[in-house]
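Lecture 7 notes: from sequence to structure.
We start with the chain below.
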Amino acid sequence: MSYSHYQKNLPGWGTSQVRNALDHPGSIHSEPASTSQFQFGPPPALNFQPQASWTGIDYYNAHAPNPQPEVYQYAMNRLLSGAGALGIGMHEARYWHRRAYGGVGDITRMLPSEIGHAAAYEAYRAWIHNSPAFRVMDGDFERQKEVLISIAIAESAHLWEATGRGFDQYALQTASETAAATASLIFSQTMDLQSLGTDYYRARGSQYYPNASDAYSMDDMALMNRQQQMGGMGLGLGQGMGPGMG
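Predicted structure tokens for the same chain:
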């Protein structure tokens, strides 16, 4: 769903404008600065309405193109057992997201793990840009984490289907468990913004400002708004991040 949305509605989709757009300079895969001011706009609207009684499997079923409970349980079991794929953080996940959803990478050739990383970040975008819809879980951080992971597993099925390789169930499992692991790590980072690095949010007293030239600055602003609504959760200054930095 998200892939076709960006393909049809994202200005510059699949062009060098997206390829050269600044990701955050702290990214492992950061690329040369571009004069382009390309930015990812908001993600597509949710295709479901969260309910207070829902658990993770309900969110998965609501978002997956063809729900397969066994795929969901496989990914969750692998994550909880610690035997699953390794997740990556927000910086690197944005790189794979831009390649997949920005159209600058050939998704038919991307590895299942790369699809999973990209899908996890897209799930994060859906979660952070639709915070009001998820207020049924306010204050319950473990439940919020479960929901983000569940949406990521479902989104990996959407993106894997878009690759034209939906018949490969083994690869879908790999994409799903990778999406779960990366979504879990991204959620943890949003609870402790210091873990994103001193070059990600520059301290100005007690305020943090997104990098305005970043292709994902709208996501950063949405995160800032969410943290403020939560009373500053995750905004504490760490060592080396006090006033005067940057």
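Points to note: The two ends are 39 Å apart (CA to CA). The longest helix spans residues 169-191.
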